[in-house]
Design a protein that fits this description.
heterohexamer, A: SH3 type barrels, B: 60s Ribosomal Protein L30, Chain: A, 8 helices, about 25% strand, binds iron/sulfur cluster, binds magnesium ion
């Protein structure tokens, strides 16, 4: 359920009393409602679902997960040899 | 007010009210195929073309091998980054001729115009038809114009037909793919469809992508010069996208195909738009690339020839023909899944 | 694309699969609740690559699939009223009701439009003051904040021609229902990352504890799913039953406060029928009295609707994981995406359709060769 | 509310709001001619066809003399007494080829379908295309189908293109009429247009008339067998009627024409409908007759050949070509008046 | 067709022309009042065949041509209102107002429709209760009974979405205005047969007497016109000035009582502006107070309209017979049916358009050769 | 002004309280309002303008006019000789 994809906020504005902004998804830009991510600003990545940012991506957590996975791969490589 | 009678048929598709043309019948997918095979061809009866559905028909007149093709263009918007309905109508028909090794000799163009279209728009489209035809080196020899009342058309439809002369030395056909053939793709996919989708009401997004609309007959001429009769099948993956084109060739040839998902050239903004809408780039329309099924021993030469031309500069090998079975895709994680014909229109998903 | 491509790395995927192979000592059955996750699993063929004995069954998490027939018939009855524009997400348009679907209704002249966001429906209502714009508001907790904002915004704009036909569903009661089914085989859950991005995971803690099942909040990319599976299997192997968070880059323990507030202002919890399953207590959202003016059910009296599902369809078992589509006699024969007998065959993220589209029928593809 | 500013331009046609396509631009009359000469052909630029506007274009490929033509059919209603849009689309293109002495070799057909069209209607039209093509002895070799959303088309448009092979022994062209030529008409006029008009909302009347839609290539073959190069010009008087066809030939040939009003075969119900609506039968569309400009010494032979075929059984001599000047009609009382191109659509008059 | 073909017999036409040649002894100038008669005369070239000295000038009897610019602009302002359908006779759609015409407005999106009969507009209003249907009701006395019946029928049906924009004109006041013009050259009139079929000819008797002009009620076919001309010339030659009836098969002295009653129930006489001529007292019809609810002028407030005719156009002189189109400097150059400067160039029965369409310009056709 | 053409009534009926009927014009049939020709019935010719019969054709008068014209032609023929 619930297609959500990460994009980078490039602009924040108010429109009809709502916090909205432009989010860039790898070259595709869309107006998105930012009312539920009141602290996110330009440069932040948000997860967008049906035109709403529902979550701010935490870059440290993202890096940590990947580091764990890469470490796992490193362990494997070591085990299997070069 | 409405009471749905539980005793009424529970299978919705057999109800008479479904016996109408749906938008999906024009999608280039399974519904389109059904419409052609179950309504249009049986209707034509003895006048209908035989054999597999080709991009262009071979007609022999007084010993000349000629190709004939037609397409109707109904794109909304009329003008878009990378092209417009006029250029598209020229490129599409030139390309359909080219997919059977036809060099364009003459085009016809018919306009169906909605009352109220600004004359500047019509002039601009006509100029684009003229410029695209001149660039492709083919004259527009005749035409027709009809005007229909307000609300009886969506501004402008352009319908072209093309007459081609078959290049000597090759005879690609939809039924020509053979096991072992290499599948080549001339360039990135999805650009045209995403460009057009980006303007749709309710989906509106901005992107850096432009339609890939362009003529491919010179590319095909070079491919045939390099590959000769080893160029077994060609198709331009327009409506229904790469998935439809490959499935159609596989079905007409009675072979299977295995593509490598990681090898498919999908530009970043196309991928982004597809992620956003929940659709698969392999189902998105193209107007300036082709997929070729080439004998393995000629594949490298053909690929080199493709890359030597601007319209084939990004050509890649995307898979191979197998003995039979469905069209499969090797997924990123190394599994395989069927890449089927799309059913009907691509609708954006929420999940 | 940042935060997507990294999680699709085939090398890391193989590393995760190897690690999973090392961890597993016996068969385990896991359920991914979410249709989006089902889609990734089937589209990428992830389940084909899992070590022998690790089996994924697909849960009821497709909002399109579980929307009751009665709601669809009601939406269609409303769409047929003159002067009405019915809007919804694209994937709702192909779902068959008792007699037809919204695409076929559109072909017959009803004004049915796809919107990307419920806010687009509000904008449409503003642009067409002489038409009644109805938004068919389906979805799980992820979509509820968006639909809530549409209502709040329409109220703020004073629109009198915008209503919502609400059929919102909630995940935790559905998980409990799955676990309580007599033939339940689920030993662990992957919880839906985006639902949790909104709601957090505290609701899952009592479920994990009561039913002694590991629950891993999981993302949607191949590496997310593989890591989520790995984390769940590790718990199972270790005899733990905790709520863990694989999708830490997007999900916090308490979810999104602003979004939860909007939900609770606009909606209240109610019993809800799930298509193919039946009514699950407390498993849905409906408009609070404050926003009753935006309720399409009240605005449009289309009478009492009696509906009946196709008798051959075992969607209920599919949606609770009791069976797979391959266990359904109609699958691939009477029931295909072209001729769906039940909701799971309709939307691309429905389990039956996901299986069918991936070719899991005549020629079942094998794993890595 | 609205104050019309008297200082604003007093010539309404030059105001920018007029710079839109009007229904009259599709009428086959003066507005149509202007649209072609001022918008479409200049737009096409160097790719545009040269010379006079012909019913079909001559294309020479590898020594073969070929003819190419296209027309879009947008008739409302789709089905009418005497035919339907499918048969019309075949006959119209076969006839345009025939007007340049082309025998049809192959047809293409493109459908633009409005979402919601009953499949039975589409099947019926496809069957009619097939039956008409089979009856004309020409295969439909390729096609295309597009579906547009509800309200984006008026149910169904059919667009055909035709490839023809030129009959040896004659080369009729729009520019071929010469002073002294006899003007022949193959049969009664106005039936098609009146049949279609009779179904119009607000004009609705019943009549015993049926469309004359039929293929004329066999008639032309016999005319050429009888008249050879003496058959100077042929035209099927479709949109714009006999008046437009004769004016177009006269203009392209640089000659005048004098017709005899009393000689024009106008069936009683056609005349009645025209009286009722205040329109001139010479401006009403036909789909199954032709007007021929024949050297005087061949005229009798050609007329005899025409009358020997069912589609020419009622052929008559209707006038003669003069040195120059406008197209004139000798009226019933013996005066002459100009028979001009129609301006735009024929609108019913109250007086 | 019975009662048409007999009156088109070329042999009898020649006989009438010969007789006329024998009767005429000196030049006479006649006016046919009616645009339909102008149309037949010009289309058949009858005036070209008349004996030297017998000259036809064309009167103001084209309802399309004399409809004031203000009415056209008002109709167009109404047509541009959302939810409105403007209907009229086909030939009204091409008449230029100050800035555009109804066909061009339709191309820009206005809902403008041709009807054959005003009753079709009533039927349309019945079929589309959510739209306002306005009928632009122009015409002479012939058309007034039809337009009256449309209002009576709409009233009987209780329609509240049907109105008429009335611009009816009356013939006798216009004939008087022609006769009173300082440079009037008209020595006899052919009165319009269909107007008289409704109204009879008693109104013409005081005109004939006061101005000492023969008036012959005449039909529309070539033989009718030739006989009407012959009868008028006979009177002139004999010094008589009576009202005679050539069109006896269709016209009775008192006209059509039922039709006249309907007219006087729905309409009352008023002053009326004629395009190109100016206001003529008592020369028009307007709705009576009883039917004010059907008056589009009252229903739709489109403000005060200021209008101005093209300064080069001498339509007033054309319509009163003071000049022929060939006397107009703009005729055939600046002013053509494609680019009309004035109303008489617009409709096929306008004098300037009738001349132009018959080719009376570069190559003036000669008589019988 | 006022295009009017003669047609023959083939049927008379009432429709929505109005006297209407079918009029045949040489093979073209149209519904016409007969409210203003209350005495005309099937077989009678009426002059129709914008869907209304405004006058009944008097066959005797029609014949008389034609007889006069034909007589005129006869006189001419006599004068000119055969
Ligand atoms: S395959 Fe079809 S019938 Fe079977 S469970 Fe799935 S939707 Fe129902
Ligand atoms: S020719 Fe044109 S400008 Fe001259 S009077 Fe006639 S309408 Fe007016
Ligand atoms: Mg193609
Ligand atoms: Mg084609
Ligand atoms: Mg194509
Ligand atoms: Mg044409
Ligand atoms: Mg439109
Ligand atoms: Mg033609
Ligand atoms: Mg043509
Ligand atoms: Mg044609
Ligand atoms: Mg095609
Ligand atoms: Mg339509």
């Amino acid at each position: 359920m619930c297609l959500g994809i990460p994009g980078r906020i490039t602009e924040v504005e108010r429109c009809d009393g709502l916090r909205t902004g432009t989010v860039d998804f790898g070259g595709v830009r869309k107006q998105v409602c930012l009312a539920y991510t009141p602290d996110a600003g330009p440069g932040d990545y948000v997860i967008v679902h049906v035109g709403f940012a529902i979550s701010v991506v935490d870059p440290d957590e993202a890096a940590r997960t990947l580091a764990v996975l890469r470490a796992m791969d490193g362990v494997l490589e070591q085990e299997l040899g070069p | 007010m409405t009471i749905v009678d539980p005793a009424a048929g529970s299978c919705p598709v057999l109800l008479p009210e479904s016996e109408r043309v749906l938008l999906g019948h024009g999608s280039g997918g399974r519904l389109s195929a059904e419409l052609i095979s179950e309504v249009l061809l049986p209707g034509l009866g003895p006048a209908a073309p035989g054999g597999p559905l080709e991009d262009a028909a071979l007609v022999t007149v007084g010993g000349c091998e000629l190709l004939l093709s037609t397409d109707a263009y109904v794109v909304d918007p009329l003008f878009f980054p990378g092209g417009d309905i006029g250029a598209l109508a020229v490129h599409g028909t030139v390309n359909d001729l080219a997919m059977r090794a036809g060099l364009p000799v003459a085009l016809t163009v018919a306009y169906v115009v909605e009352e109220g279209l600004p004359l500047t728009d019509l002039r601009r489209v006509a100029a684009s038809v003229g410029a695209a035809a001149a660039a492709a080196g083919v004259p527009v020899v005749t035409g027709d114009t009809k005007v229909v009342g307000r609300g009886a058309a969506d501004r402008l439809f352009v319908i072209t037909a093309g007459l081609g002369r078959r290049l000597p030395g090759a005879a690609p056909t939809a039924a020509g793919a053979r096991p072992g053939d290499v599948v080549l793709l001339s360039g990135p996919i999805g650009c045209h469809g995403v460009t057009v989708l980006s303007t749709r009401e309710g989906l509106g997004f901005e992107s850096d992508v432009a339609s890939d609309s362009k003529p491919l007959h010179r590319l095909v001429a070079d491919m045939i010069a390099a590959g000769g009769t080893g160029v077994h099948a060609l198709r331009d993956p327009t409506r229904g996208g790469l998935a439809a084109a490959v499935n159609e060739i596989a079905a007409a040839s009675g072979v299977g195909v295995e593509l490598v998902e990681a090898a498919l050239p999908v530009p970043e903004p196309v991928r982004a738009a597809c992620e956003m809408l929940g659709i698969d780039p392999a189902y998105v329309a193209n107007e300036g690339c082709l997929v070729a099924f080439v004998a393995p021993e000629r594949a490298d030469a053909v690929l080199t020839a493709m890359r030597a031309r601007p319209e084939g500069a990004a050509a890649v090998r995307i898979g191979a023909v197998t003995d039979g079975g469905p069209v499969l895709v090797r997924t990123m994680v190394g599994a395989r899944r069927v890449l089927d014909l799309p059913l009907g229109e691509q609708l954006p998903r929420i999940c | 694309m940042r935060y997507l491509d990294e999680y699709r790395d085939p090398v890391l995927a193989r590393a995760l699969l190897s690690e999973l192979g090392r961890v597993v000592t016996r068969p385990w059955t896991l359920m991914e609740v979410c249709g989006g996750q089902t889609h990734t699993i089937v589209r990428q063929g992830i389940d084909e690559l899992l070590p022998d004995g690790v089996r994924m069954i697909h849960g009821p998490g497709c909002p399109v699939c579980v929307t009751p027939l009665e709601v669809l018939d009601r939406a269609m009855a409303i769409a047929q009223r003159p002067g009405t524009i019915l809007t919804s997400f694209g994937d709702m348009l192909r779902v068959p009701g008792s007699r037809t679907d919204l695409l076929a209704l559109r072909a017959r002249g009803a004004d049915v439009r796809v919107v990307y966001s419920p806010m687009d429906a509000v904008a449409l209502a503003r642009r067409t003051p002489d038409r009644q714009v109805v938004f068919l508001a389906v979805g799980f907790e992820t979509t509820a904040p968006a639909n809530a904002m549409a209502v709040l915004h329409a109220a703020a704009l004073g629109l009198t021609n915008f209503t919502v036909l609400v059929s919102h569903v909630l995940v935790p009661p559905a998980m409990t229902a799955v676990l309580r089914a007599p033939d339940c085989r689920v030993q662990a859950f992957l919880a839906a990352g985006h639902v949790c991005a909104v709601m957090g995971w505290t609701e899952y803690e009592p479920i994990a504890a009561e039913h002694r099942v590991p629950i891993v909040v999981t993302g949607f990319e191949p590496l997310d799913l593989l890591e989520g599976i790995l984390m769940a299997v590790r718990q199972l192997e270790q005899g733990r039953h905790e709520v863990e968070n694989q999708y830490a880059r997007a999900v916090r323990r308490d979810g999104n406060q602003a979004a939860r507030q909007a939900i609770s202002r606009v909606f209240r919890v109610t019993d809800r029928a799930w298509r193919g399953i039946g009514t699950i207590p407390g498993s849905g959202l409906t408009l609070t009295d404050e926003f009753a003016a935006f309720d399409a059910r009240r605005r449009f009296d289309v009478g009492h609707l009696l509906v009946r599902e196709h008798p051959d369809c075992v969607a209920g078992d599919i949606l609770t994981g009791a069976r797979t589509p391959l266990d359904c006699a109609a699958y691939g024969t009477a029931c295909t995406p072209r001729t769906p007998l039940g909701a799971p065959m309709v939307s691309a993220e429905g389990t039956c359709a996901a299986y069918y589209t991936a070719g899991r029928r005549a020629v079942p593809p094998t794993g890595v060769s």
